[in-house]
Please model this.
Amino acid sequence: MAETIQKIPGKKPRPIEGHIPAAQALRNVVDRVYGAAWDAKKRGELVGWSSSKFPIELAKAFGLHAVYPENHAATTAAKKDGLRLCQTAEDMGYDNDICGYARISLAYAAGEPTDSRKMPQPDFVLCCNNICNMMTKWYENIARMHDIPMIMIDIPFQNTVDVPEEKVDYLMGQFEYAIHQLEKLTGKKFDEKKFEEACKIANRTAAAWLKACSYMAYEPSPLSGFDLFNHMADIVAARCEIDAAEGFELLAAEYEQSVKEGTSTWEYPEEHRILFEGIPCWPGLRHLFEPLKQNGVNVTAVVYAPAFGFQYTTVREMAAAYCKAPCSVCIEDGVEWRETMAKENGVSGALVNYNRSCKPWSGAMPEIERRWREDLDIPVVHFDGDQADERNFSDEQYKTRVQGLVEIMNERKADRIAKGEDIYTNFENTKETDWSKTTI
Model:
């Protein structure tokens, strides 16, 4: 864990002198991206819908505009209109057991209006199954509704820690075919210079985003993991945009300034630091946050946010980087990511969302939880939730689970203080796992 800083009670973070607050700058980025898509649509240009982890750098080589159904669905859910669209999709024949994002998106694609952020209907879709295979059917259905092309990049499950060269070879072939499809769609040739510029900006954005995420390691933290959730739209929808890179650099600078000045966006006592696992329940963010605030529990480790920090230097490295998504990597990778973050950021417990909308993510969690308890010696509790469908979240169950976690952490904290031990997980007080001896 990073060095301990002195927090000054009652003093709030301030913007970098001469700049608007980073949060405002980043909100402006998303507004501009969606506004640009609408303007392009009005000019008669092609506008696509893209999955969040599609290598959008390829489409940027053609100057194409894209918007993101996952981002749109999360915003719709957060603004309390997700349930209505989910039910509309169910009335269309889609089962309520499929992803809430997909149901919201399919209803919107079919013409169901919403008062949340609007996006133009698609002229093509960009799909990538490194999130989950349900994405394929979701986007196929959108393509059929609108009778439009679907450009698909198949990224099979990553069942080894290292990405094998033969898999990279396969993905390079996928990239080449996607480029061919984009050339046919646009009537343009692949622009190498535009592609290189998009990659350069994407890496700058990723570096700034990961740097901002890293400030959770300070004790006390100059931010809460919930702050990062508020910026997910930018890292999803604008990672090839220069103003997104600048916005995240400004955000990291604000966190650095907060460290020096002893301020934090987390304005409450930091009695405990925890890892929050999974995608937030967007319709109930306040319900998630309130019990933590009341008990002085700050979220200082999340895997969902930094998972979008794709970094690479070559096209082959780009192919390998896009293989590394939380739901598409082997369990050894999933455990190592989270345990390293828990050690670096100093946590004393974990809270897990068993997300009904994201079964690939939740399906691995019982084993991952077991390893946390064994390797990190921390209490872990979970709750039933959903990223978009509020019917699958119980406020009272969540409060009970948080209270149980707090009680265990209080007991352990008192015991460790009495023994003169560090109250948080770190590299010194946890055992290292010998992955060569690990079996699934």
The longest helix spans residues 395-419. Residues 435-440 have pLDDT under 50 and may be disordered. Strands lie at 47-50, 65-67, 124-128, 150-153, 272-277, 297-302, 349-355, 380-385. The two ends are 29 Å apart (CA to CA).
